[in-house]
Automatic annotation (TrEMBL):
This is MmgE/PrpD family protein. Coiled coil: none annotated. One of its GO terms (molecular function) is lyase activity. It comes from the Bacteria. PANTHER family: 2-METHYLCITRATE DEHYDRATASE, 2-METHYLCITRATE DEHYDRATASE-RELATED. Residues 284-452 form the MmgE/PrpD C-terminal domain. Belongs to the PrpD family.
Length: 467
C-alpha cells in the first residue's frame, strides 16, 4: 500500500525544522533559556522521583517484568531501560505541579521532552550540545502543536501535555538520532497514534501525573520504531483523519490546518523566535491558571497587611479556562492543586503555595477550609478576550472591617516577560534537588547543567543526578 505523498503542511514544516536544526542556529536568548528549562525540569524530576505516583509507576513496571536496564534517570538510584526511564522521568517531572509550560498552548513541554531526550542521549553516548539542540527542537514541536490546538482541544477534554507532548518527545528523539526530515515526519506519524490524555483527573485520582510519562515514553518509542523500519503515515497533523481533526475539532471548518504556519503558532519572546524562549517557570506548586490570582493575593497580603482572619470575601475575575477550576474539589493532592478555592485559601492562610501545602493535614485544615467558602470566581470578558495571549486575573478582597483592596495581574510571575531570575532558578533547583541528592551532588549537577552544551560526555552529569 502506498503511503500519502509528503506535502509542505505543518507536519513536514516541523520535520524540516527539527532535522536541519543545529545549535549554531539558536540565538543566545533561546540557548540560555534552554539551559534554564533543563535545570528547572530536572529539579522537578529529581524531587518528583520520590512522589507516590512515581513510586506506583515503578512498582507497576517491576510487576510487569520490565524496567531494569543500563539507563539512569535523574533522582533515581536504580537504572532502567530507556523507555521506562522516560516514563518514570516524565511522571516524576509532573508530580509536584512545579514544571514549566508554554502559555499559548497550555502545555508542559519540559516534563515530556527532557526525560525522553535525556534517556536516549545517555543510552547512546550523545554530547550535551546535541542533547540541548534536540530539547530545543522538541519544545518547538510540543509548544507549536499545542498552541495550534488550544483552547479547542481543552474544551474537547484533552490534556495538551500528553496529546501534543508526544510529538515533542518524538521530534527530540529523532533529532538525537540524526534523522532526516522524512524519518522525522515518520516518527511524528507513529507518535500521533499514541497521543492520549484527558481531563478526568479533575474528578480525582492521580492519573494526571503519568500523562507526561506516557507521552515521553511513546514519543521515544515512535522514533525508535522509525529507526527500526516501521512504515508510518505522512502529514499526521493535518491529514483529514489526523491529529488536529481528532483533537482540536479541525473537521468543523473553523481552521484549515493544512495551511497554517505551525512555527508561528502561539507567540514568541520579542528577542527570540524559538518557543523555548517564551516558556514560563512556576514559582507556585499548583495549576498555572491560578497563578495570576495567587500573585495578586500575596501582594495584597504583603503591601496592604491583609491577613486571612480579616477576609470577608474574595472576588476573582479571570478567563473561562481558569474559572472552570472553581468547581474542582480538594479530595487529594492533585485535585487540590487544581482547585481555585483551595489554592487561593491556601495563599491567604499560609502566605505561600508550596508542595508541602497540599498534604492530608493541610487539606483538612479548618481555617483554610473556612476561607474556601468566601472565594467567588467568575469569567471576566476582558480577560477571556485576552486569553490565550495573556493569563490574567483581577482580585478584589473585602475585609470584615470594610476595607477593599484589589489587584490586576495581566501575566503571572515566572513568564518570559516577568521571569524567575537565574539566582531564583538556582534556589528552586537546590531546594528540590538537594534533599534527594545531597547538597554537594546537587551543586555539582547544577554546575554541569549551566554548561550543558560544552559537555562532550554526559556521564559525570548523569552520575551527579543519581538519587
Amino acid at each position: 500500500m502506498d503511503l500519502p505523498v509528503t506535502v509542505s503542511g505543518p507536519t513536514r514544516q516541523l520535520a524540516d525544522f527539527a532535522s536541519a536544526l543545529t545549535l549554531a542556529d539558536v540565538d543566545d536568548v533561546a540557548r540560555h533559556a534552554a539551559r534554564r528549562h533543563v535545570i528547572d525540569t530536572l529539579a522537578c524530576i529529581i524531587n518528583g522521583a520520590g512522589q507516590d505516583a512515581t513510586l506506583s509507576v515503578q512498582k507497576a513496571l517491576t510487576a510487569a517484568g520490565v524496567g531494569a536496564g543500563p539507563v539512569s534517570m535523574a533522582g533515581f538510584v536504580e537504572s532502567f531501560d530507556a523507555l521506562s526511564a522516560a516514563y518514570l522521568g516524565g511522571t516524576a517531572a509532573h508530580g509536584l505541579e512545579l514544571d514549566d509550560g508554554f502559555r499559548a498552548g497550555s502545555v508542559h513541554p519540559g516534563a515530556v521532552v527532557v526525560p525522553a531526550a535525556l534517556a536516549l542521549a545517555s543510552q547512546r553516548g550523545i554530547s550535551g550540545a546535541e542533547l540541548l539542540t534536540a530539547i530545543i527542537a522538541g519544545y518547538e514541536a510540543a509548544c507549536r502543536i499545542a498552541a495550534a490546538s488550544h483552547p479547542r482541544s481543552r474544551w474537547r477534554g484533552f490534556h495538551n501535555t500528553s496529546t501534543a507532548g508526544v510529538f515533542g518527545a518524538a521530534v527530540a528523539a529523532a533529532r538525537l538520532l540524526g534523522m532526516s526530515a522524512d524519518d522525522t515526519e515518520a516518527a511524528m506519524g507513529i507518535a500521533a497514534s499514541s497521543a492520549a490524555g484527558i481531563f478526568t483527573f479533575l474528578a480525582g485520582g492521580d492519573v494526571k501525573r503519568i500523562h507526561p510519562g506516557h507521552a515521553s515514553r511513546e514519543g521515544l518509542l515512535a522514533a525508535l520504531l522509525t529507526e527500526s523500519g516501521l512504515p508510518a503515515p505522512r502529514g499526521a497533523l493535518e491529514f483529514k483523519e489526523g491529529f488536529f481533526a481528532a483533537y482540536a475539532g479541525g473537521d468543523t471548518g473553523e481552521v484549515d490546518y493544512s495551511t497554517i504556519d505551525i512555527l508561528a503558532a502561539g507567540d514568541n519572546n520579542p528577542k527570540s523566535r524559538f518557543a523555548i524562549a517564551n516558556c514560563y517557570m512556576k514559582p507556585h506548586a499548583c495549576c498555572r491558571h491560578i497563578h495570576a490570582a495567587i500573585d495578586a493575593v500575596l501582594d495584597m497580603a504583603k503591601a496592604d497587611g491583609i491577613t486571612a482572619p480579616q477576609v470577608d470575601r474574595v472576588e476573582i475575575g479571570t478567563y473561562a479556562v481558569a474559572a472552570s477550576h472553581a468547581e474542582v474539589g480538594w479530595s487529594e493532592m492533585t485535585t487540590a492543586q487544581m482547585s481555585f478555592p483551595f489554592v487561593i485559601a491556601t495563599a491567604l492562610a499560609r502566605n505561600q503555595v508550596g508542595v508541602a501545602d497540599f498534604g492530608d493535614v493541610e487539606r483538612a485544615d479548618g481555617d483554610t477550609l473556612a476561607l474556601t467558602g468566601r472565594i467567588d470566581v467568575r469569567v471576566d470578558e476582558a480577560y477571556e478576550a485576552a486569553y490565550p495571549r495573556k493569563r490574567g486575573a483581577h482580585v478584589l478582597i473585602r475585609t470584615k472591617d470594610g476595607r477593599v483592596a484589589e489587584r490586576h495581574v495581566p501575566e503571572p510571575f515566572g513568564s518570559a516577560s516577568n521571569p524567575l531570575t537565574d539566582e531564583g532558578l538556582e534556589t528552586k533547583f537546590m531546594a528540590l534537588a538537594a534533599p534527594r541528592l545531597s547538597e554537594a551532588k546537587a551543586r555539582r549537577a547544577l554546575e554541569l547543567l549551566w554548561k550543558l552544551d560544552e559537555l562532550e560526555d554526559l556521564a559525570p552529569l548523569v552520575e551527579a543526578m543519581r538519587g
